[in-house]
Amino acid sequence: MAVLLAVLLGTARLVTLPRVTVEGPSMLPTLLPGDRLLVLPGPVRPGCLVVVSHPRNPGLLLVKRADAVDRRTVTVRGDNPSASTDSRHFGPVPRRLVLGRPVYRYSPADRSGWLWST
């Protein structure tokens, strides 16, 4: 497992896989502010974590949970609805704005681990 992680993180540096830092409480309790995540492109399905560009502010990345997925759009929601700006506010996100799925939390060290099942 450690070897796979080293390969993924090394690959992330070589091919610049996206990495994001969680800001704000919208994904509590699953993700905490300050969590750093490695993002891999790939298929999105309902229930999985997803990183998208904000449809109204493309420079802003959002970490949310895919609620509904169709050919053209993904509806996203925060795990903490009272603290989340998500598809309830800006509608479904076009698929072209989906960066991928966070698959590994690499920081902080005491919370590091795979996010496959979330």
What does this entry look like structurally?
One of its GO terms (molecular function) is serine-type endopeptidase activity. This protein has 118 residues and is α+β, with helices and mostly antiparallel strands. The chain has a single domain (27-114), classed as Umud Fragment, subunit A. Helix content is 15%, strand content 39%. The protein has helices at residues 2-15, 87-90; strands spanning 19-21, 36-40, 49-54, 57-69, 73-77, 93-94, 98-107, 113-114. Strands 1, 2, 3, 4, 5, 6, 7 and 8 form an 8-stranded antiparallel beta sheet that branches. The model has no long low-confidence stretch (mean pLDDT 91).
Give a brief description.
One of its GO terms (biological process) is signal peptide processing. With 118 residues, this protein is α+β, with helices and mostly antiparallel strands. It has 2 helices and 8 strands, in the order H-E-E-E-E-E-H-E-E-E.
Give the topology.
Layout: H1 2-15, E1 19-21, E2 36-40, E3 49-54, E4 57-69, E5 73-77, H2 87-90, E6 93-94, E7 98-107, E8 113-114
Antiparallel strand pairs: 1-2, 2-7, 3-4, 3-7, 4-5, 5-6, 7-8
Find the CATH topology. Answer: Umud Fragment, subunit A
The CATH architecture comes to: Ribbon
Sequence stretches where pLDDT stays below 50 over 5 or more residues? none
Largest sheet geometry: 8 strands, antiparallel
Compute the separation of the termini in Å. Answer: 18 Å
Q: In CATH's first tier, which class applies?
A: Mainly Beta
Tell me the number of helical segments per DSSP (H or I, 4 or more residues long): 2
Strand content: 35-45%
